[in-house]
Amino acid sequence: MFGILTPEAFIHGPIETGAQLIVVGGALSVVLLLTITKRWKWLWTEWLTSLDAKRIGIMYLILAGLMLARGGVDALMMRSQQAVAVGAGTGYLSPDHFAQVFTAHGVIMIFFVAMTFMFGLINCILPLQIGTRDVSFPLLNSISFWLTATGAVLVNLSLVVGAFAATGWLAYPPLSEIAYSPGVGVDYYIWALQISGIGTLLAAVNFIVTIIKERAPGMTLMRMPIFVWTVLGSMLLVLFAFPILTGTMTMLALDRVLGMHFFSTDLGGNAMMYVNLIWAWGHPEVYILILPAFGIFSEIVPVFSQKRLFGYTSMVVATMAIVLLSFGVWVHHFFTMGAGANVNAFFGIATMVIAIPTGVKVFNWIFTMFRGRIKYTVPMLWFMGFLFSFILGGMTGVLMSVPAVDFQLHNSLFLVAHFHNMVIGGVLFGYFCGFAYWFPKIFGFGLNEMLGKVSYWLWIVGFAMAFIPLYILGMMGMTRRLDFVDAASGYHPLLVLAAVGAGIIALGAAAQFICYAVSTFERKRHMDRTGDYWNGRTLEWSVPSPAPFYNFAHIPTVHGRDAWWTMKEKKQTHEAGYQDILLPKNSCVGLLIAGFSFLFGFGMVWHMWWLLPVSLIGIFVTIVVRSFADETEYVVPAHLVKATEQRHHK
Amino acid sequence: MKSRLLIPLSLGIIGFVVLLTVVAHGGQFPLLDPAGTIGLLERDLMVRTVFLMLIVVIPVFILIIFVGWFYRAENTKAKYTPNWENSAMEELIWWSVPLEIVLVLAALTWSSTHELDPMRALNHPKDPVVVEVVALPWKWLFIYPEQGIASVNEVAFPADAPIEFHITADAPMNSFWIPALGGQMYAMTGMSTSLHLIAPEPGDFAGRSANYSGEGFSQMTFTARALEDDDFENWVKDAKASGAALTPETYAVLAEPSDTGPVRYYGSVTMPFSAILNSFMSMPVMDHIEHH
Amino acid sequence: MKKHDTHEQVSFGLWVYIMSDCILFASLFAAYAVLHTQTAGGAGGAELFDRSFVLIETLILLTSSFTCGLALLAARAKNTVGVWLSLLATFALGATFLGMELSEFGMLVSEGHSWAASAFLSSFFTLVGTHGLHIFVGLSWLIALFIYLGIRGLTPKMSKRIVYFSLFWHFLDIVWICLFSLVYLLGSL
Questions:
Q1: A148 and A112 in contact (C-beta within 8 Å)?
Q2: Within a 13 Å sphere around the CA of C174, how many CA atoms are in the beta-carbon half?
Q3: Which chains touch B (3 or more CB pairs under 8 A)?
Q4: Are strands B182-187 and B174-178 parallel, antiparallel or unpaired?
Q5: Three-state DSSP class for B215?
Q6: Which of A164, A220, A272, A496 is deepest in the core (most CB within 10 A)?
């Protein structure tokens, strides 16, 4: 009945018990709060079953925020463990627990912070930017979100029941095989990635179709905002890369559950094939995350330089060049595997080639600022922080793409510092920038600039203090993932400094949450009454803030790049009168499918085989019942549209 | 960049550099100051690559600071061209500048990757000393096929003679790394990788696993000792005299997952490297089924 | 007024999805290509594959694609009986194919050539099994269509769904052709 789940799975050491209490307590207090305030029905109809992309986007953002807190705590635990575990001191984490923490940190930050944050911004903004009322498949969108959330639930459930993988975030075999990792940790890892990965793949299909098919009349491909271009590039990468992840995880799962020999050490298994496959997904994944960030910068730099984007065509070409090249460089993640010099040199050079389109983007941004009138708002500050961090990270990246140099830097803290330069200084700063920029559009009021700047500077200082020492430690020969260091190594003072830096980052993150809270509290002061908070250039700023549930009362006609800017210049107006609008009805299908997928994943992790047919039949019945739903859309009558528009424009 | 920010920002950066210098002071920097010839070549390559990149990066940084400062909204005297959106000339320049740097780097990469190929034997008058390395959970076993001895967590070799490491694992994947001598190489089950290093002068160097391999990974360190020829002879003699033997039986005990333990020597070896390597090659399928 | 999930969007979306499914099969093909010589001393493809059996399987699947095409024509002609007959034939042929595949698997396992016997067999079972799993999904899809067809009849919505299904079913055919030629034909050489 319960497979291999025994009461012992719930019993942990004191630190894990604390985490258990936080997870369970947090969930219970949310339930309690909803019950006391009688918000259940509201939550169900307005949010959980909503098919409005903007609502789904906000749910993605909330999920990303929660997971950022979780992943951040993991980071603080790692930094503090390394700062105290020196010489005779063994720190407060056991080696196994430390390994779970660094594995969870990586998995959560990539899959459930970065990816989730990205889809949140895309959902909130992309339909508005291309002038459509919704995505092509609203129900599929909801399914994608809930599958992502299911993955996040599985990862965090491992805190309460059982344990998480202790293998590093890519779970290389043979360590992740049943012989070396007999527990359920790797299974949690596999099924969290499988389920959320399918959600991501479906979302990519949805956004590709949306971008190709739903653009407003007049918006040709070469008039699309760069953010839309980069999302298209990123989604194409998802489409081609995520199936590789699905296939690889399936093989690993089959090894573990059915005793197959894809990556095992015996009977012809080949662990190197896993490393190749996982990076054939993993390297494009990096670009899946960074491309939308590039898109965000290409949106905000013209707005705050009050000038058109320089080199639009170059930007498009560079984006698509990166999409293509990102599939040809994966071997640079394991030059030390002993491939021949020709192979290594080829992949090293291919990696460097990516620096060309990336460099072009940087130059274009600088020349957008050149002869502009730059306003240093919070989004623009994030951009400046990004530029410095990204160029430094790019430089260290090119350095490591030289195979003979990589032999010394591989798996060292230098590498750790490099990719944090890219994913914090590049991806995360990009999303923070986008979030600060679009916050008025999403919520209808602006953010407190002062608190935003405080948070920014805390992040910048903390970031430098946490990661520059890691570069130095790399030069001292310190390897990543050590749960203690030798006192004679001389690493200790720098590790303490890095821990202080991590603490400052945590303050920066806290300041951000305070900023959101304070801004909400004093929102009357920063209300966005025009819908065009920053004097924007793209269509999302042509509608009121927050955008009405139907997005556009009139579908706009586009006459050039910077569609909204052109309209403002030409004082273009809509035709008079309003029309009925067709919108998708709410649906609980997404929640149901995700719920059954959760049961499937849980059944797989704990070998409760009976759950598998139950959950699959559940999904089948859900789909069959849905196939009979004829009225999946409802009409918003013209008079209601008119009333809503007039209220906004008062 | 607003001008009132420039001063605190520069002071902050200077302060931070001073702080880093103080904190890192006294540390060992095997990557920047390596003892091994290969490590030196890799260091030089690293430095050369960084300088090449700085040719672009420094002007870009200066450009960002200048543009960011000069074209701030407050400076109404600066030229403002809100509709200027492209210039074939400029764009040609920044497609070609990174392109050229990358061309130079690519040439450097191609030659250095072949020159510093870890599998390539070193050009040296002396014959190489062959050391076979087995990563075990969580310790390092070194087998000397020519001397017929083995050691755990300590590897010795004569200074100023090339060393030829053959590396495998009887454990999750590890990476064999002696930072002061030069780059690392993965240790994988059923696979033999090779690595050629040389230490011109005698000395003791820290070595460790650089790829996470489970609970005992942090302790998976060893000492690499480059000795004078005589000292190396004595080291081999001492190992021979230790009396312990590396047999399939003692090896099986050693290969069990355990804490790293002390340095150990084996005076004789009847469990050769090839046997360890082959133990992961496919066994007959029928055996396996009976085994189940 | 603009409708969501229109025919044009859905069929385009399905094409996009099929493209990604191709990549899934490509990675399994790649794994098979790497591992197919790793027989761990056991039998290889040449000894294990029964070419004539697989040829019959192939013909059955191709015929099911043909009957699936007939269903499309019948739907276009608004011929409900024709749709029923051709879809039932598609189901029967698909189920037979799956049954044969499972019996092939059963035979291999009973002769000691299970998926756990070698890396070659692991990758073989997974590659062919993944295609079989897709066939199973297709059959479930057909059942869902039957339920709808039985209750609502041949509505315009139903006709479109037959188009979507046939797109998926033909795709599985193409994958099988690759499998047949790369795994069975090349393997039994």
A1: yes
A2: 12
A3: A, C
A4: antiparallel
A5: coil
A6: A164
By a Cβ cutoff of 8 Å, what residues of chain C touch chain B? Answer: 38-43, 112-114, 116-118
* Percentages of chain C per state (helix, strand, coil), in multiples of 5: 85, 0, 15
Calpha distance B25→C3 (Å, rounded): 68
Alpha carbons A36 and C9: distance in angstroms, whole number: 43
Helical pair C119-152 and C7-35, crossing angle rounded to 10 deg: 160
Judge contact between A624 and A176, C-beta under 8 A. Answer: no
Q: Where are the alpha helices (DSSP H) in A161-270?
A: 185-213, 226-258
Q: Is residue C141 part of a domain?
A: yes
- Phi and psi at residue A338, in whole multiples of 5°? 95, 20
What is the phi/psi pair of residue B216, to 5°?
-90, 10
* Nearest alpha-carbon partner for B163 in B31, B36, B35: B36
Contacts of A155 (CB under 8 A, 6+ apart): A104, A107, A108, A112, A164, A188, A189, A192
Break chain A into its structural domains and give their ranges.
7-648
Answer yes or no: do C31 and A273 touch at CB < 8 A.
yes
Question: Residue B285 has what pLDDT?
Answer: 35
The tokens describing A292, both together, are 């939308």
State pLDDT tens for residues A115-154.
Answer: 999 999 999 999 999 999 999 999 999 999 999 999 999 9
Taking an 8 Å cut-off on Cβ atoms, the answer to whether B71 and A374 are in contact is: yes
Rounded to 5 degrees, what are φ and ψ at B118? -60, -20
pLDDT band at A15 (very low <50, low <70, confident <90, very high): confident
Q: Please tell me which of the candidates A307, A411, A412 has its beta carbon nearest to residue B82.
A: A307
Asked if A404 lies within 8 A of B80 by C-beta distance, the reply is no
Nearest CA in chain A to C145: A624
Can you give the pTM of this predicted structure? 0.96
Chains that touch C (3 or more CB pairs under 8 A): A, B
pLDDT band at A475 (very low <50, low <70, confident <90, very high): very high
pLDDT for B283: 45
Residues in chain A: 650
Interface confidence, given as ipTM, is 0.96
Residue from the list C13, C31, C118 with its beta carbon closest to the beta carbon of A137: C13
When scoring B2, B67, B75, B134 by the number of chain A Cβ atoms within 10 A, the one with the most, hence best to mutate, is B67
Q: CATH number for the A7-648 domain, one of 1.20.210.10, 1.10.1040.50, 3.30.428.10, 3.90.980.10?
A: 1.20.210.10
CA triple A477-A481-A485, angle to 5 deg: 60
Residues of A in contact with B173 (CB under 8 A): 172, 174-175, 271
Q: pLDDT tens digit string along A75-87?
A: 999 999 999 998 8
Tally of domains in chain C: 1
Domain span including residue C97: 51-185
Distance CA(B156)–CA(B144), nearest Å, equals 10
pLDDT over 90 at A60, yes or no:
yes
Residues of chain A contacting residue C161, judged by C-beta atoms under 8 Å apart? 627
Cis peptide before A493 (omega within 30 of 0): no
